[in-house]
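Marked as duplicate of an earlier ticket. Keeping the data here for the record.
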Amino acid sequence: MKRTTALFFYSFLALTLTLSSCKVQDYPSNARPVTHEIWDSLVQEHVSPEGWVDYPGFIQDSSRLNRYLHLLEGSHPNDKHWSRDEQLAYWINAYNAFTVKLIVDHYPVASIKDIKNGIPFVNTVWDIKFIQIEQATYDLNNIEHGIIRPKFNEPRVHFAVNCASVSCPKLSNRAYTADQLDEQLTQAARDFLGDESKNKVSKDKVELSKIFSWYGGDFKKGGKSIIEYINQYAPVQAGPNATIEYVDYDWSLNEQREGS
């Protein structure tokens, strides 16, 4: 098999397996909405305002972290008893909390991508099925791409879910809640676009996180351009003809260090 043909085959295989693994059917549940007070207290104690995470602190607080995860595991969101915002807040918090759990269970680790599983170059850390919610089993890809993105059609979630990496939007040090969700998502967008270590916006040129390239279709819904989308939240308005560059992504762990 020629090199180019082989590369195409494995790329196609990886894409096919990823897309198929993300498909999630509605789970029939009669559970009631849960409170996120435990998670709120945990992130206030172990996440800085800038989003740096004290993973050893989470390890020491593992009993409370596990108690919150058990709460999530016993109550699957559903359309019968949960509002849209209750469901979305749950899934954002669940994604972030289970990501922290994944790091804690493998700590110390230099990058989340160093946590390996399955077939090399095909399965990734985001395909590890370790999340049990009632009788449904999920991986992080299932939650983000099989539930959050298709069900809620809300591009701002890209600034709220955290992949435990330096270039990711910061992990919020407050839990997302239904009664404050719209305000919290807007603030997350403003924080991300205002962080010049991740995005630089000027009138004539914008240097953007690759998130805006990877999920460009999410931000362009409704006929918006990327420039029009970011101008809703950026501290500086980019001109309609501004050039766009996408910056390299740093997958180093978003760990709190001395001085951060």
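See parent ticket for discussion. Residues 84-106 form the longest helix (23 residues).
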